[in-house]
Amino acid sequence: MIKTAFLKPNGSVISMDQFAIHHQNFDRKGQELIKKWASETEGKDLIFAIGNGSNTYNTQCAVCNLMQNLKTLKKQVDISFCVVPECGASKYSCTTAAQEEFGKEAEIKQISAVSIGRRLIDPMSEYVKIEPQHLGQGQYQLSADEKLLKQKVALVVRDRVSLIGADLNQASKHLLQYICGLNEATAKGIVKYREEHGAFRSREQLKKIKGIGAVAFQQCAGFLTVSNPEEDSERGPPAKRAKTMEEWCPLDGTIVHPDDYKNGRK
């Protein structure tokens, strides 16, 4: 039985389902469901993230066969697939953090499907949720001192996030808490604000988050980018987006700090 999840480009879950695979072909339910999803992409690409587990080859073949059938759709959709490492996905799906996000009724394997899909969208946001001893890198991580291992991973993640930044409209709370100037509480506040008001349109909106004052804003703003909301209009319903119609500044999509915007506009 194949566990599946249909995700938006920002990782939000649209729906989760399951269907069977027979002789490298999805059953009728699976074929009809994926055709339905393809018709709902609103002109965007449809990309399958396939876990690299035991049944990955048959799943890849089934997707390839289905791609041929989807060419007959009235609305042409670019379709492709990518094989994604699924190490630690099943471990994360059993955690308290996963239950908080998906609810206690959600099936573990379907949570794993969401995790695999999100790894293709934003790998770092998803991998920071996994305990380092479950990442499957080498043979001896289970023998290492757990506290020391977590400290080292935290340092590496903070360094990488500081180097490349994080998208305010996409990063998970687990990733945001590693940003300089933020903590677990303010990271949760950012995600909550995003859920209630839709996509961030400006870094200035960070000042509306409880716990982010002038000092915290100065520390974190340069590491948090805001992608152009107009390029991903489905991030939050129109009614919510209308509440926060701050004009998007292209510099918000870079790692240039707001303090340097004046120089950047010269």
From TrEMBL:
Tex protein YqgF-like domain ranges (all copies): 2-120
InterPro entries linked: Ribos_protein_bS1-like, RNaseH-like_sf, RuvA_2-like, Tex_YqgF, YqgF/RNaseH-like_dom_sf
Superkingdom field: Eukaryota
Entry-linked Pfam families: HHH_3 (PF12836), Tex_YqgF (PF16921)
SUPFAM superfamilies, per database record: Ribonuclease H-like, RuvA domain 2-like
Listed GO MF terms: mRNA binding; structural constituent of ribosome
TM annotation in the entry: none
Gene Ontology BP term (one): nucleobase-containing compound metabolic process
Protein name in UniProt: Tex_YqgF domain-containing protein
Organism: Caenorhabditis japonica
Organism taxonomic ancestry: Eukaryota, Metazoa, Ecdysozoa, Nematoda, Chromadorea
